[in-house]
Amino acid sequence: MASRVSNFTDLIQRVAASCLLHPLACRPESNDINENETGDEEDEDSQSENGKEEEEEEENEERLRVWEEAEEEEVRSRSVKELEMLMAEVFDAVSAMKRAYLSLQEAHSPWDPDKMRVADVAVVGELRRIGVLREKFRRRVRRGESGCGGKRVVVGATLREVVAPYEAAVEELKREVKVKEVEVENLTEKLRSIANLTAGGKKGRSQSKRRIRCSLSQVAVSPAPELFETSFNQVKETFKSFTSLLLSLMRSANWDIAAAVRSIEAATAATPPPPASTIGSHHAKYALESYISRKIFESFDHETFYMDGSLSSLINPDQFRRDCFTQFKDMKSMDPIELLGILPTCHFGKFCSKKYLSIIHEKMESSLLGDLEHRRQVLAGNHPRSKFYSEYLGVAKAIWLLHLLAFSVDPPPSLFEVSGGAEFHPLYMESVLRVGGGGRVAGGQNVGFLVTPGFKLGNGLIIKARVYLTPRT
User: Fold this and answer.
1) Do residues 459 and 432 make contact, with C-beta atoms less than 8 angstroms apart?
2) Is the dihedral of CA 249, 251, 256, 258 positive or negative?
3) Which residues does the chain have with pLDDT short of 50?
4) Is 441 exposed, middle or buried (0-12, 13-18, 19+ CB in 10 A)?
5) CA proximity to 349, closest of 393, 315, 316
6) Which end of the chain is more exposed for a tag (fewer CB within 10 A), N or C?
7) The pLDDT value given to residue 132
8) In what order do the strands lie in the sheet with 429-431?
9) Cα separation of 413 and 409, whole Å?
10) Which of 448, 450, 455, 430 is nearest to 440 (CA)?
11) pLDDT value of residue 405
């Protein structure tokens, strides 16, 4: 009995010890529930804060978008205003150019060289203004909205527009090079032929012409007023030679020289011609020389004698001066008939044709030469190979060289003329008639008519106008 009580007591002690060592898990479960509830509350708080941040970001983005749209609208409005101003300037420039071109047309009929020069300058000025507006528009397009496909297309088209003229110019230069190569070959062949003729002892030049060619061959490396004076002296010599040939042909055709002079003067002079009694029969050559001079010096102050509308002397004056002097040096030793045989329709050829038709009218040619063959060839774009036309080409070449030299000098010489009836001024005029008393003109004489015009050069040198004097009435 005692052993059973002991065993029972031991059993109770072991159970109690086990309970002490292994307490119940009710309390920990309660702590876990509390922790879960706290975590859920924290998650709800963080989600609420995140929602507020997202709402703030959306509000900021909306404000930014509204600001950007307003800025774009302002830029677009400013661009539209700039384009409107640019188009207004373009319309104004086009209207001004139309008015200037209308003035240019009005200056042609009746012919007014002064108005022509003013209209030329006005047209060129408006063209330059339109060019500036075009460049302004292109620069604006290039600095337009970046990243826009439309902008890339416009810029690409602009670049093509810029490159296209240069490509066309290159092709034109290639064609000109080929033409020049053909010209060089032809001139080389002509040179061989002339050399063979020279070696065979055939001489077709007079001593005076050789002196003129020798003087022209000694040309300075740059244009100078003194060179212009020398070239003008050659012009006077060719005038005298051609006038003598015309007078001899008139006498051979039994012309009444005095009546012919009166007819020429009445048909061409702006003022009534002087009476026949004031021009002696042996002085008719001066009236004829005056007629030729007036015809061939017409439009001398324009770079192409108004054969076309070129304005190179205004657009790029320095390059144009260099080109003119280069042409002067290249052409001074050329035989004009040989040159025109190769290039009959070059600028010089067109000048020769135009002036020949102006100086020698149909009735004059028919009477002096017996037919109109020269005129037919000239109208067809050819140049006759006759003594008469060769003598005329000497005058044309001398004027052409003088014209090239005039546009090579800076500043260019200023041409001046004298009207009939004007008072004689020895500083600007010289009489074609020999005067005694130390070369001084006696008083009581006025200008009867102008024989050749005068020039005032940039260095102050005056090339006097040659005039025929008549007694004062």
Assistant:
1) no
2) positive
3) 1-2, 5, 25-31, 33, 145-155, 200-219, 268, 270-273, 275-277
4) middle
5) 393
6) N
7) 80
8) 429-431, 465-471, 445-452
9) 7
10) 430
11) 92
CA–CA distances in Å: residue 176 to residues 156, 170, 180, 350, 374: 30, 10, 6, 19, 30
Question: What is the predicted pLDDT for the residue at 151?
Answer: 45
Residue 283: Cβ-neighbour burial (10 angstroms; 0-12, 13-18, 19+): middle
**What pLDDT score does 356 carry?**
95
Q: Please give the sequence-ordered ranges of beta strands (E in DSSP) within 14-108, or none if there are none.
A: none
Evaluate whether 151 touches 145 at the Cβ level (below 8 Å).
yes
Two structure tokens written together for 319:
């390059």
Contacts of 50 (CB under 8 A, 6+ apart): none
Provide the pairing of β-strand 465-471 with 429-431.
parallel
For 462, which DSSP code? Answer: E
pLDDT of residue 205: 41
Separation CA 294–CA 286 (nearest Å): 12
CA nearest 469: which of 438, 425, 416? 425
At 39 the pLDDT is 54
Residue type, 433: L
Amino acid type, 464: K
What pLDDT is recorded for position 242? Answer: 94
Instruction: Give, rounded to a whole angstrom, the gap between the first and last alpha carbons of the chain.
Output: 192
Q: Which residues share a beta bridge with 471?
A: 445
The CA distance from 251 to 228, in Å, is 35
Question: What is the model's pLDDT at position 209?
Answer: 43
CB 428 within 8 Å of CB 457: no
C-alpha 333/C-alpha 350 separation (Å) is 20
